[in-house]
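SAMPLE LOG
Freezer: B-3
Tube label: C17
Construct: single chain, 520 aa
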Amino acid sequence: MSETRWGYAGERPPPRFNMARYCLAGAAGSAPDKVALIVVSDAQAPVERAERWTYGQLDDAVRRVAAGLRDLGLEPGARLMIRMGNTSDYALLFFGAIAAGCVPLPSSAQLTEEEAAFLLRDSGARVLALSDDLAIAPPPGVRVFGPAEVMALRKNHQPQAYADTAADDPAFLVYTSGTTGQPKGVLHAQRSAWGRRPMYQGWYGIRPDDVILHAGAFNWTYTLGVGLTDPWANGATAVLYNGPRDVAVWPLLMAKFRATLFAAVPGVYRQILKYADLRDFDLSGLRHGLTAGEALSAALLEQWRAITGKELYEALGMSECSTYISSSPGVPVKPGSPGKPQAGRCVAALPVEGGEEPLPAGEAGLLAVHRSDPGLMLGYWNRPDEEELVYRGEWFIGGDLVHFDADGYMSYHGRNDDVMNAMGYRVSPLEVEHCLSQHPAVAEVAVTELKVREGVSVIAAFVVPRDPDEPEGVDAAPLLAYAHQHLAAYKCPREIIFTDSLPRTANGKVRRRDLAQWRR
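STRUCTURE (predicted):
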C-alpha cells in the first residue's frame, strides 16, 4: 500500500519537541498569572480555599522538579514510577519527569501492592514516588521518596531548561491489559501531546477561557490528557477533585467553579442523573459535557439533554492512541455512534480475515489507525510478541469491530477479542482468570462481561468448583474477597456464577462469548 495514498493528513510535529514545554511554556510566557490548575479537596469549602497554581508557578515548579530529578542521577529515558493520590505532586512529577527527558509511569492508587510491584519490576523504574498510605517494598536499587522529597525537589533546585528532546523520544509509559494476562506497558513519545491537536476542535471545541472539570484520577490517561495536557496546551484552566467520592460533588463543583466543560465516563453521568437533582445547581456556565472510556447509550444521552439542556459529546480511543473518533460542536451528535474520525486522522475498517485495503461504507471490519498518526504509541514495553498482534502493514489494529456509514459516522459492533471494559478501564479476562484460578476452591474459571441493563455491564466469573460438595465450593464470598486481595477494585468480578462445566470449542478452547447464556 502506498504511503502517499493513506496516512495522517494533519500538521506534523516539529522534529525537536518536548511535551511538557509544549503544554506550559507558552501560557507561562504570555499569561504567567493566569490560573492553570485548581485542586479541590473539600467541595463544601469556599472556592478561595482550593489549591491554585498559575501558569508561571507551574512552569517554575515543573522545571525545578526536572532539575532535581537530573541531580538524582536520572538520565534521559530513565523510568520513574508514580504511586500517589490525586494531588498536585502527581502532576508536578509527571510533567517534571517529561521536562527532564525521563519517562514517568503513572500508576493507579487502586492497584494492590502485588500489582504495583509487578509494574515496578517490569518497567525497570529507578525511582518510586509514593504517598505515605501507598507504600510498597521496592527491590534493591530503587530509590523511594514521598511528598517531603517532592517538596524538596521544588525548593532546593533552580529551574532548568526543558530537555531538548526529539519528537520521537520516549515521554511516558502507561500499562494496560495484555493478551497474556499480564499488564503490558504502552510507551508514548513526546509527540503524543501534539497528536492530540485534532481533538481540540474535533471533540472539545476548546477555548483559552475554558474551565475544564475532570472526574477522573491523575493516573488515568483520560485525566492526564483531557484533564491536564490539553487544557494547558490551550491556556485554559483545569479543575480536579481529590476529596471523598460523592456523586453530588460533580454538579456542585461545576456550579462553584463555573466549569464550562465537564469530562467523565458515561457511568458518572448516569449516577449524577440518578442521585443528584440538577435543578439545585447553577450550571449556566457549562457549555457541554465530554465523555469517553465506554459506550454512551442513546437513552443516557437523551436523559442528559432533557434535564440539562446541554449537549454531550462522545469520543472513542485507546491507551495506544488516545481518542481519534468523536462528535463535537462542529460534528453533530448521532445517537448510538461515538462520531467521526477527527480531522487529519487516517482511520478505517479493515477486513477481519486480513488485508490492508479499507472496507467501503456499511461493511463491518476491524477498526484501524494509520501508523503515521503522531498520537500513536512508540510500542509496547519489552513486548515484541504483543506488537506483532496489533500491526498489519501500515495500520494499527485495536480489536474493535466497527463500520462507517456513508456520512462517516462509526458504529460499534463489540470486540473482536475478549478484552472487557470496566468503567472505562480495559481489563483482560486472562488476568482475572489467572488470579481466581489460584484459589483452592476453583477447578476452572472463565471471565466475561455480562450486560445487566441498557448501557451497563459488569465483570462476571464463571467458576467450576473443585469440590462442589464442600460449602466453600459453592460460596461466592470467599472468591470475591480473594479477588479484592489480589486485583485492583475495577478488575474484580461483580458476580460469581457456579457451573458444572465451561463452553468450549472442539479444540478445547473456552468460548467466552457463549458464557452469558451458560448456566448450571
